[in-house]
Write a structure and sequence with these properties.
The complex is a heterodimer of chains A (about 250) and B (about 575). Chain A has about 250 residues and is α+β, with helices and mostly antiparallel strands. Chain A has nine helices and seven strands. Chain B has three domains: about 240 residues, FAD/NAD(P)-binding domain; about 130 residues, no CATH class; about 150 residues, Methane Monooxygenase Hydroxylase, Chain G, domain 1. Classes of the chains: A alpha+beta (about 250), B alpha+beta (about 575).
Chain lengths: ~250, ~575
């Protein structure tokens, strides 16, 4: 198929950006979206022009590095699919495709389609862990049974890949889905309960400090999340947050 | 301490060192340590916990691993791995890694290739992701305490040796292009495997050999470079622009049965799209792994499974349009699990549909998205590489009185200059071919001649071709942009250049090792049944190569392997 691409070009965080128009020809439906971008970049290099910069790594939908805003939707039109796993058969011949970076204050553009998501790392550093050393002995793994339903719920929350589509989809650029997924995962497990109050307070504080917006429960994050992280996690985090702030002496 | 790479090895090393009190600088080329390709491991992690009471023990895991490695690994290293395996599971659970559990709340296990017990701990088809996020969280904790300084979007460009010791690295900030000098008392390389030398592999796009290769160029011996392994399960290749392969966990072989049609005409009809696999009767299917290896069946090790699939496909029984695929069938597993589940739920005389429904939900809980996505699996594919052991403790004990290492010594300045000049030279070529052209060409050469089977004649000619390709690279490569800015093509060129040297060394090693063992299959050395024919008399050693300036003329050092606890045997999975 032949396509018209309108792609965001921006030289740096403070530079002014603009859409550039390019044509690509003979794109097969079996190609992934990023392979189509490879074709475009190959074309640009051959013509002595600068290729577009974009983030990508595993190309199997698990590392969370790819991040394109395609036709007004994070990761494009296909439900629960990352950009790298989106195939060109989701588009038709002659179509015009708009490709932009994630847009949020907390995710400044590095170059073209690449953004800086280190705010997510700093939120995790604020408390997204259990304080246990990696060396030395701990309890036997089976010493504390965890009800299967809780373990499954913790796993579901833990499947977040940290891509930031939730932030990109949200009109408030809120990171509540991302933060709540980690808070939720650890709150379901007995190991995580000890530090629960401190964790949720610190992570929420850091989230606010990074400049993410608040949640107005529109649910765009859940709808666009490539891993189907549930909105229920936000409810759970709010409960944890309330509990942490109401507990006497904490 | 400098730690390069933030996968399972790097992030846990960085966290452990920081917990012990060291100040750590950690480097990763991605935007976050959580992106490391350990995240893509699917099936699970082995530990000799014997929770299933099936007779597992540290010795048994040790034995299975030595045997799985076809008696070409260091016995003591493998024993250490088996020993600490149980500790790792305790560790992960304490960190909040959500492993699969049974209804009683205890941990669940499944089985894996080359093994007759259930000792694999898993989190659906995403175990690597959960393990990495555990290690990443331990690392994040130390970053918040200021014990680890994280350098994301930074890549190691060279290793700096001062008085015979690795005392730092030259790194490039991938966002600004700035070249930096970082010094330390020790440098730990946790930079992962080099499967991308084959171009199409299940590695991430950025996975590369650069850090390891630079260390090799600076004097570290490269061990067994030709020991790469082809994973038996991945999604078939589709077209010319394909950039990578997608792995399917081998844990699928736990419950799936692998087969091809018994009759060639059936296989042909399937390839032509005239016949559906479900229409082939039970007696017309060849469950070739169960036929050849009754004791291990579908759970033979990867190299054996890959080769057996290749044998069937080469003989004309392959399916799919390409004839390069075999079937993996879950029908039996679904019915078996469904019956058990019906009994658990107290359903008497369940209908076949009910059994199927119950069984499907059990299987989908076990394999998650993997099972839904794929029914067929091919034989072609990716590679894994041996890891090099290191001992940091010993290395550092003599350095207790050594003060901070200066990063402006002659050695650092020289290494920095070499990196800068190399980039200038690369950009000055201004040829006509993009970096990918060379990478694809190298990948094809390696796949055809140094992949699943190898022979002396092809290896010799491939070494020459790689050498010529390297010359062509230096005359023809076209890299846009400048060195002191973000420049992904320049990053790629730098990595591909190292692959172009590594490829030649891999061929040299494959040529030298005149035997077949594990994933290294030399066509000249096989049993009449097509199994790998080892030569313990002449090749019971680790090949360690010393760089001499030309990878094709590297000097071989032999480290003999000693087996004290395990008797050397011909591997059999029958």
């Amino acid at each position: 198929m032949n396509l018209t691409l309108k792609v965001w070009r921006q030289n740096g965080p403070n530079a002014e950006g603009k859409m550039e128009t390019h044509q690509v020809k003979d794109i097969s439906g079996d190609m992934s979206f990023l392979e189509m971008m490879d074709v475009l970049n190959g074309q640009l290099i051959d013509a002595g022009k600068e290729p577009f910069v974009f983030d990508h790594d595993c190309r199997e939908g698990i590392c969370g590095m790819c991040s394109m805003y395609i036709n007004g939707r994070p990761h494009g039109p296909k439900h629960r699919t990352t950009t790298c796993q989106l195939h060109m058969r989701s588009f038709s011949d002659g179509e015009t495709i708009h490709i932009e970076p994630w847009r949020a204050d907390a995710f400044p553009v590095v170059k073209d389609l690449m953004v800086d998501r280190s705010a997510f790392d700093r939120v995790i550093q604020a408390g997204g862990y259990i304080s246990v050393n990696t060396s030395g002995n701990t309890l036997d793994a089976n010493a504390i049974p965890v009800p299967k339903d809780d373990a499954d719920a913790a796993f579901d929350a833990a499947t977040c890949i940290g891509c930031g589509a939730c932030v990109a989809a949200c009109k408030n650029a809120s990171a509540m889905l991302f933060v709540s997924a980690k808070v939720s995962q650890l709150s379901y497990l007995p190991q995580g309960k000890v530090e629960a109050a401190e964790r949720v307070r610190n992570m929420v504080n850091q989230m606010d400090k990074e400049g993410f917006g608040n949640c107005t429960v529109t649910g765009a994050c859940e709808a666009e999340c490539p891993k189907g992280i549930s909105l229920e996690n936000i409810t759970r985090m709010n409960r944890e947050f309330l509990k942490a702030n109401l507990s006497p002496g904490k | 301490m400098i730690v390069v790479g933030t996968g399972l090895a790097g992030s846990s090393a960085a966290a452990s060192l920081a917990e012990m009190g060291y100040n750590v600088k950690a480097f990763c080329f991605q935007d976050s340590p959580r992106r490391a390709h350990s995240i893509a491991a699917q099936g699970g992690i082995n530990a000799a916990k014997n929770y299933q009471n099936d007779g597992d023990s540290t010795y048994r895991l040790f034995y299975d691993t030595v045997k799985g490695g076809d008696y070409r690994s260091r016995e003591s290293n493998v024993h250490r791995l088996a020993e600490v395996s149980t500790n790792i599971i305790d560790q992960c659970v304490a960190q909040g890694v959500p492993f699969a559990r049974e209804y009683g709340g205890l941990l669940d296990n499944r089985s894996f290739g080359g093994v007759q017990v259930s000792r694999t701990f898993y989190a659906k088809g995403q175990t690597g992701q959960q393990l990495l996020l555990g290690a990443y969280s331990a690392m994040s904790r130390q970053i918040s305490k200021g014990k680890i300084q994280l350098f994301n979007r930074h890549e190691m460009m060279d290793l700096v040796i001062v008085d015979g010791k690795a005392r730092g690295i030259i790194a490039r900030n991938l966002v600004t292009g700035e070249i930096q000098r970082h010094s330390a008392h020790a440098v730990v390389l946790c930079s992962g495997g080099y499967g991308n030398v084959f171009y199409l592999s299940t590695n991430a796009m950025g996975s590369n050999v650069t850090a390891a290769w630079k260390a090799h160029r600076r004097g570290a011996f490269m061990a067994n470079p030709c020991f790469t392994q082809i994973h038996p399960t991945c999604i078939p290749v589709s077209g010319d622009y394909q950039s990578k392969l997608t792995l399917m966990s081998e844990s699928l072989r736990n419950d799936g049965r692998i087969w091809v049609p018994k009759k060639k005409e059936d296989a042909q009809a399937i390839r032509d799209g005239k016949l559906k696999p479900t229409a082939i009767k039970e007696e017309d299917r060849d469950y070739y792994l169960e036929r050849r290896y009754p004791a291990f069946g579908n759970l033979v090790p990867r190299d054996v499974a890959s080769r057996a699939a290749k044998e069937r496909c080469d003989a004309g029984f392959g399916v799919n349009k390409t004839g390069q695929a075999v079937y993996l069938d879950f029908a039996d597993a679904i019915m078996r699990y469904g019956k058990t589940e019906a009994r658990v739920q107290g359903i008497d005389n369940p209908s076949d549909d009910k059994v199927k429904e119950l069984g499907t939900s059990v299987v989908s809980a076990k394999y998650g998205n993997l099972f839904e996505m794929y029914e067929k699996i091919v034989d072609q594919n990716p590679y894994e590489t041996p890891m090099m052991p290191y001992t940091i403790g010993d290395f550092l004990s003599n350095d207790i009185r050594t003060g901070p290492i200066a990063n402006d010594s002659e050695e650092f300045m020289q290494a920095e200059k070499e990196v800068t000049e190399k980039f200038e030279k690369l950009l000055a070529v201004k040829g006509t071919k993009a970096v990918d052209y060379f990478h694809r060409k190298l990948g094809l050469l390696m796949w055809d001649n140094c992949g699943m089977s190898r022979n002396a004649e092809d290896l010799k000619s491939t070494m020459k071709e790689i050498h010529a390709l390297r010359d062509e690279f230096w005359n023809e490569v076209r890299i846009p942009g400048k060195p002191n800015e973000m420049n992904p093509e320049l990053e790629k060129a730098n990595r591909v250049l190292d692959f172009l040297e590594l490829g030649e060394l891999m061929c040299l090693d494959a040529l030298d090792r005149e035997e077949s063992c594990g994933g290294h299959f030399r066509e000249e050395y096989q049993t009449p049944e097509g199994e790998a024919l080892r030569d313990d008399e002449n090749f019971l050693f680790v090949s360690a190569y010393e760089f001499t300036g030309d990878p094709g003329k590297s000097v071989l050092h032999k480290e003999p392997l000693h087996y004290e606890a395990i008797e050397l045997k011909t591997r059999s999975y029958k």
